[in-house]
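We were asked to recover a plausible sequence for a given structure. The inputs and outputs are reproduced exactly as logged, with field labels preserved.

PROBLEM: sequence recovery
POSITIONS: 300
GIVEN STRUCTURE:
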């Protein structure tokens, strides 16, 4: 009989910017879940894989402390926790397995619009407000800068107006929040996106096989992202030119066409989007009957 300890647990943000993307990604891996009444747990219906729905800040620890086997969380949160543990001389025990294609943002230093920031050295002897104390401390050390870090748990962008800091260091995606507060981005501290982290604790053979299967599916889903399947007819004489025009494709399949020796059918998986311009270039090179299809699943 399957016991609880044989099931995989994945920590996912309960409610926030990463939640929908994370659940969608797992659904695309073929996983189906039923949510518990308290909305804190999702039971895996078709595979022994359950979700723990938590605050994103708790995810690195849940994985590092082996409560969960995998976690989906922003690199910014992982780095902040990791550097915090390093700073305190503690262990961090997880490995990063995948970069995902959502949750993009950057941790950046921003200055009041009228400031004359000319590079990291302008931060010398300044006060910088942030919730990312450990990442900022590390950045300042790497740039040999002495500055005071002022901790803000939220609403960091109001610190300069309150006279609490000269600069801020916060997450930015569109830049709209900074602009609305009379601030401008002056230096990038960390480029971030959602990542998958995995426990380093040894797993039973069955569990390890399940984790490997899941990671292989994730890899397939990520590879498919943006990939297209392209089919066309091409004169044999133009094959090399047409191959060179196919964006991000590996060796295409070339098939004979009934009733003609001069033309062949070419099928290829393109790992990038195929734009109208590419189709027009392919046509100009002699291709005809062009068809571009989305790719749903891929297993290497
Ligand atoms: O409740 P819980 O603790 O789980 O959630 P949270 O409020 O801490 O996190 P949440 O849901 O806001 O963000 C989760 C993750 O999304 C972050 O850790 C980042 O990895 C990623 N992410 C991507 C962002 C942003 N973009 C983002 N723009 N996280 C926060 N912001 C905030 C930023 O702090 C600032 O206040 O949005 C504002 C700036 O946005 P722009 O578009 O105006 O520049
Ligand atoms: Zn959080």
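RECOVERED SEQUENCE:
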């Amino acid at each position: 009989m399957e016991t609880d300890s044989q099931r995989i647990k994945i920590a996912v943000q309960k409610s926030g910017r990463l939640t929908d993307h994370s659940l969608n990604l797992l659904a695309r891996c073929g996983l189906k879940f039923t949510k518990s009444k308290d909305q804190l747990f999702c039971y895996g219906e078709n595979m022994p894989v359950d979700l723990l729905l938590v605050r994103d800040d708790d995810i690195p620890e849940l994985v590092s402390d082996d409560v969960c086997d995998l976690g989906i969380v922003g690199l910014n949160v992982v780095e902040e926790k990791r550097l915090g543990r390093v700073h305190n001389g503690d262990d961090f025990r997880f490995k990063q397995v995948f970069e995902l294609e959502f949750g993009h943002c950057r941790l950046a230093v921003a200055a009041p619009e009228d400031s004359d920031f000319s590079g990291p050295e302008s931060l010398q002897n300044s006060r910088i407000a942030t919730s990312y104390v450990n990442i900022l401390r590390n950045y300042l050390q790497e740039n040999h800068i002495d500055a005071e870090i002022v901790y803000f748990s939220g609403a960091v962008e109001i610190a300069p107006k309150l006279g609490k800091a000269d600069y801020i260091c916060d997450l930015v995606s569109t830049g709209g929040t900074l602009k609305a507060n009379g601030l401008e981005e002056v230096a990038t501290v960390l480029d971030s996106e959602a990542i998958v982290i995995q426990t380093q604790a040894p797993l039973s053979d069955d569990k390890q096989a399940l984790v490997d299967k899941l990671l292989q599916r994730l890899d397939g889903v990520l590879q498919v992202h943006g990939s297209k399947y392209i089919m066309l007819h091409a004169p044999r004489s133009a094959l090399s030119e047409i191959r060179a025009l196919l964006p991000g494709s590996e060796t295409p399949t070339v098939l004979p066409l009934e009733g003609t020796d001069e033309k062949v059918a070419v099928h290829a998986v393109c790992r990038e989007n195929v734009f109208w311009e590419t189709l027009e270039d392919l046509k100009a090179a002699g291709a005809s009957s062009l068809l571009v299809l989305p790719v749903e699943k891929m297993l290497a």
